[in-house]
Amino acid sequence: MTEHKQVEVEVDEDFCILVDEGLEDIVKNFFHWEIETCNSCIDYKGSVWIEFCDFHDWEQFLELSLRNNIAVNGNGYKRETLWTFLQEKSKAKVVFDEEVIDNPNEEDGFVGTGVLVICVGLNFPNELLNEFKELLFEVLPLE
């Protein structure tokens, strides 16, 4: 399997992360708008994955996309928006699990906290990345 070429992105003055090359501006912009992402990548099969760390981040992203669609298209359809892109050209996968922490009684063990964690992974073909960026930055303008 081919390794992902990663670059460092300064999200804040004291916070840097590594992201796959090509996703830097997307990830940085999501953080600027206080929408957290994690594990985002361009995989070896040619798909873009953007994972929202919390269901509320996903919900906020969808709400902003919907508002933009209403502002652009009103009651009809004038042109594609991020909202229509998400509905027609992407897939979303919900992943849920229990939050875990290091087990203080086992060196390599973990223990569940009883806290539910819900993440959402957005997926679309890599050839649509530039189209996604254009529509995304219309909804969430760059700094």
Describe this structure in words.
The protein is of the alpha+beta class and 143 residues long. The chain has helices at 24-32, 55-73, 82-89, 129-139, and strands at 6-12, 15-20, 37-42, 47-52, 91-102, 110-125. The chain has a four-stranded antiparallel beta sheet. Strands 1-2 form a two-stranded antiparallel ribbon. A hairpin with a 2-residue loop joins strand 1 and strand 2 (15-20). The model has no long low-confidence stretch (mean pLDDT 90).
In brief:
The protein is α+β, with helices and mostly antiparallel strands and 143 residues long. The protein has helices at residues 24-32, 55-73, 82-89, 129-139, and strands at residues 6-12, 15-20, 37-42, 47-52, 91-102, 110-125. Helices cover 33% and strands 37% of the residues.
Keyword list:
alpha+beta; 143 residues; 37% strand
Largest sheet: 4 strands, antiparallel
The total count of helices amounts to 4
Average residue-wise pLDDT = 90
Strand order of the largest sheet: 3-4-6-5
**How many beta-strand elements?**
6
- Written as H for each helix and E for each strand, in order along the chain, the element string is EEHEEHHEEH
Helix content: 25-40%
Query: What is the percentage of strand-forming residues?
Result: 35-45%
Ranges with pLDDT <50 over ≥5 residues? none
Mass-distribution shape: globular
Assign the structural class, choosing from mainly alpha, mainly beta, alpha/beta, alpha+beta, or little secondary structure: alpha+beta
Through-space gap between termini: 35 Å
The value of Rg in angstroms is: 17 Å
